[in-house]
Amino acid sequence: MKQKKNVIQFAVLPPLLISFLFFSYFFSNLQLKSFPPSPSNDSIYAFNQTPFAHTKFSILIGILTRPEKYDRRHLLRLVYGIQRSPVADIDVKFVFCNLTKQEQRVFIALEILRFNDIIILNCTENMNNGKTYTYFSSLPHILPKRYTYVMKADDDVFIRLNQLSLSLNPLPRIDLYYGFVIPCSSKNPYVDYMSGMGFLFSWDLVEWIGKSGIPANETQGPEDKLVGKWLKIGNKAKNRFSDKPAMYDYPGTNGRCSHELIPETVAVHRLKRWDQWFHVLEFFNVTKQLNNSKFFHL
Ligand SMILES: *[C@@H]1O[C@H](CO)[C@@H](O)[C@H](O)[C@H]1NC(C)=O
Ligand SMILES: *[C@@H]1O[C@H](CO)[C@@H](O)[C@H](O)[C@H]1NC(C)=O
Ligand SMILES: *[C@@H]1O[C@H](CO)[C@@H](O)[C@H](O)[C@H]1NC(C)=O
Ligand SMILES: *[C@@H]1O[C@H](CO)[C@@H](O)[C@H](O)[C@H]1NC(C)=O
Ligand SMILES: *[C@@H]1O[C@H](CO)[C@@H](O)[C@H](O)[C@H]1NC(C)=O
Ligand SMILES: *[C@@H]1O[C@H](CO)[C@@H](O)[C@H](O)[C@H]1NC(C)=O
Question: What's the gap in Å between 287 CA and the centre of ligand 6?
Answer without folding.
Answer: 12
